[in-house]
Amino acid sequence: MKTSLNPDERGYYGSFGGAFIPEMMQANVAELQEKYLDIIGTQEFKDEFDVLLRDYVGRPSPLYLATRLSEKYETNVYLKREDLNHTGAHKINNSLGQIILAKKLGKKRIIAETGAGQHGVATATACALMGLECTVFMGELDVKRQAPNVGRMKMLGAQVVPVSSGSKTLKDATNEAMRYWIANPFDTHYIIGSVVGPHPYPDMVAKFQSVISEEIRKQLKEKTGSELPDVVIACVGGGSNATGAFYHFLEEEKVRLIAAEAAGKGLESGFTAAATFKGVSGILHGSKTLFMQTDDGQVVEPHSISAGLDYPGIGPALAHWFETGRVEYQAITDEDAMQSGLELCKLEGIIPAVESSHALAVLDKTKFGKDEHVVVNLSGRGDKDLETYLKYL
Amino acid sequence: MSNRINTVLESKDNILSIYFTAGYPKLDDTMKVLVELERSGADMIEVGVPFSDPIADGPTIQHSNTVALDNGMSVQLLFDQLSGVRDKVSLPLIMMSSLNPIIQYGFEQFCQKCQEVGADGLIIPDLPVEEYISEYKDVVERYGLRNIILITPSSTDARIRLIDEHTDSFIYMVSSAATTGVNKNFSQDFEAFAKRLQAMNLKNPLVTGFGIKDKESFDQVTKFSKGGIIGSAFVKAVAEGDDAVASTAKFMREFA
Ligand SMILES: Cc1ncc(COP(=O)(O)O)c(C=O)c1O
After folding, report:
1. What positions constitute the catalytic site (chain B) (predicted)?
2. Are the beta carbons of A375 and A63 closer than 8 angstroms?
3. 3-state SS, one letter per residue, for A200-260
4. Fewest beta carbons within 10 Å, which of A199, A356, B133, B150?
5. Ligand 1 pocket mutation pick from A61, A81, A85, A90 by most atoms within 8 angstroms of CB
């Protein structure tokens, strides 16, 4: 099967994608489907987005040659420092892109779901910047384990709605945001935080995050003389940072792309979030994709130490890239991720988000060549995770 | 092919359709509730197939889904419970489910089972009309089932016409831009929507759902449509007290 970077006009990547939404969401989603490419393709949009990414987010984010880490793993490890972005993760790239789009569509209110709280903080930030009303849905369990981010969202003027249904985590927050949008369809835009949801969200979010790989190409060229690394590694919750890091390399077949899924307590433990290892194709959150479910089609509650990876599925493009074999998947346990996160603190003086630590753990599981250039997307910083790390010290 | 849904639509106005969640409040309440709904005067029944993550449902129905799943309800068990239903119940039965449980069971197998137990139709809220036409319509028709599709005040005329063209029973008219269980009076918006639809001269009748909670709101919607569907209000009522049959009878008394 041929690997597609972009979806077809019905939003499919191979057999995954589409827009499986109730009629009550149809008008809002159809409006996006009809207009998103035109709007984000205008010079006006690009200029506004670029200026914000540069002056507000602080892009380009550095590409840093981590020498001590490279020495340990006997290869050349470059860290793409999305953790240095304003608000501390890659999520802001997407929130800003979508909020500019929402303004152009005349929307007055923004809703969002969040797991780790990084997308919630990024969206609350974008709303403060643009003067729009912001409501963020967050699972009750995540409200507890990511308390600093709940505080940040409130300071930024957002209303945080704790969600008590289901597993009380990211998937339930997503359900609740969709329900709210159905009940309050007017003047409201839903900023989904990852490459999930009905078409056009997966493609729209991919395009806003693709700045990551666009920059990697330029930065690598300056440092090594070649735009192409040998390997790019990223963690996958829904898949937005991975998609951003892979985007401009997807069609470069020589570049090896590795996605780190959260194995939780282990693939066979019953407490995992590894969607390609444990998932089956089905319909979740408006698209056909791979997610963990019972034989009876009920969604299995995921587990990961990292709130941002604690999601039962992945976006449809990532499911497609798995299906075609373009992207390799590895399952990283809670324990291995925590050790790799702590190792980065000691070797490089960088405290990574627990999500990003899953990507770092791939270095320990895979042998790379001495001359290879390996880029790890450091999707976020670990300030929000101190409590979790301290238990592993 | 004749179908109980069409027969009821042809023979009656002010159709009272009741939604309930299979396996709720207790696992073996499914058949009891069906029988009591027929006895107490319902005209049509929607059998809800529980799903862990329904997005088009409000808190009451979501909760009933969770309880039913905890009780051990599954698609296979539901078909087992429904075998023999036609010896006891003659009303049209419509299976209402999110798409995923149906796909995992096997879409065609699901339709075949519906036909086998004597169900008449499907409502799959997250299956949009385009996907239905391109992937599923042939199968649904092969098993003599009717697929019922929702429209809302924000559906365009073109879309409503497409849905009408591919429907052969009734169109499910969502009373307002809201999910189930949102209590509000039927506003001018609903009337305006009903009038807009009247002027379109659709070939299928309309049955209204969402937010109908009692006789009064039912009477309001049947002024403008062929019938009304009660969901959350019944699901809430059926779990009050320990006996689902008695609770059903009590709820239905108002409509006698
Ligand atoms: C730092 C960080 N990395 C990764 C993720 C996972 O999301 P995605 O797979 O969409 O990049 C999150 C989500 O909250 C996050 O905060």
Report:
1. 46, 57
2. yes
3. CHHHHHHHHHCHHHHHHHHHHHHHHCCCCCCEEEEEECCCHHHHHHHHHHCCCCCCEEEEE
4. B133
5. A90
Q: For B68-102, what is each residue's pLDDT tens digit?
A: 999 999 999 999 999 999 999 999 999 999 999 99
pTM score: 0.96
C-alpha A280/C-alpha A294 separation (Å) is 9
Cross-chain residue pair B55–A185, CB shorter than 8 Å: no
Q: Which residues pair with B174 in a beta bridge?
A: B209
Which one from B43, B57, B120, B164 is the annotated catalytic residue?
A: B57
User: What residues contact residue A380 under an 8 Å CB cut-off, 6+ apart?
Assistant: A82, A83, A88, A89, A90, A91, A116, A118, A308, A352, A353, A355, A356
Give chain A's domains with CATH numbers.
Answer: 20-52+91-200 (3.40.50.1100), 58-88+210-392 (3.40.50.1100)
Is the predicted pLDDT of residue A114 greater than 60, yes or no? yes
Out of A194, A258, A378, give the residue to mutate to test ligand 1, the one with the largest number of ligand atoms within 8 Å of its CB: A194
Is residue A286 within 8 angstroms of chain B, CB to CB?
yes
CB distance A183–B127 less than 8 Å? no
State the Rg of chain B over Cα.
Answer: 17
ipTM: 0.94
Angle between helices A201-209 and A91-104 (to 10 degrees): 120
